[in-house]
Amino acid sequence: MLEKPLCFRGTDTDSFRNCKRLPDEQCNQKFIKISLPENSMNEYEEILSIVGSAPWYRLTGMTPKVLGDRVVVEMEIDKNKHLQALGTAHGGAIASVLDSAIGLNVNREVIKMGKTAVTAQLNIHYIRPVAEGKIVGVGMPVHIGSKVTVGYGEVRNEDGELIATGTATFYIINRKFKD
């Protein structure tokens, strides 16, 4: 049975404290939808190019992209890199997509404070295996604090089927993304 995607409309776009789940009839997106102002996505695309060229992203084949008012992380499952012994994508590959998707969406808010958020804890629920094709992760901040932030995310396959969900906690540090 196909899991229904979560769609959210934020009423407090600075902190996301008042995000509310939309009724299913108002939700026709495959991924989380957050109503956000288009304030800084162009500036954030520059950071995404830095992140996307980092060694880990190149090694795993992950690509961060702006999609509307959020950041998604895509990865084409490579049978020579991402599969474990049972022939499906290794949980670590899926975890990398989820961690990056949540982290990049959290950092979109944290960089406004002149800081960066780094993962402190990641909790994943694997829903179904995937062996081929593209997977896409998306996340959203749930709480932005001064020292710690929390986010939620999903990874889906090309058909929109839910592969994994998770939450992550991030430390906010006094460091910026490098060029």
From TrEMBL:
Residues 87-163 form the Thioesterase domain. Keywords: Hydrolase. Belongs to the thioesterase PaaI family. This is PaaI family thioesterase. One of its GO terms (molecular function) is fatty acyl-CoA hydrolase activity. It comes from the Archaea. It comes from Archaeoglobus fulgidus. SUPFAM superfamilies: Thioesterase/thiol ester dehydrase-isomerase (SSF54637). CDD domains: PaaI_thioesterase. InterPro entries: ACOT13, HotDog_dom_sf, PAAI_dom, Thioestr_dom. Pfam families: 4HBT.
